[in-house]
UniProtKB/TrEMBL annotation:
Keywords: Toxin-antitoxin system
Biological process (GO), any one: regulation of DNA-templated transcription
Family: Belongs to the ParD antitoxin family.
Protein name, UniProt field: Type II toxin-antitoxin system ParD family antitoxin
Organism of origin: Rhodoblastus acidophilus (Rhodopseudomonas acidophila)
Amino acid sequence: MPTMNVNLTPEMAQFVSEEIASGDYASASELVRDALRLLKRDRDMEKEKLEILRREISLGIEQAQRGEFSERSIEDIVADVLRDEA
């Protein structure tokens, strides 16, 4: 497995030490690997959400070009989206 050196702020180093001391992680390497997995997962999810949004916008533009419009307000649409995400 490749090795890298990473410079941390004192606060980050303290956090790493506390996590290891709590028993949640056996080593700094384990904590960093877990943090990177979570970061990658979050970025992948954001990319997926952005792609869905782009598709929906494209669909909306196509519908508007065909003269298909909704009588719903933006507030109603936002409320539906927020409800679906919950």
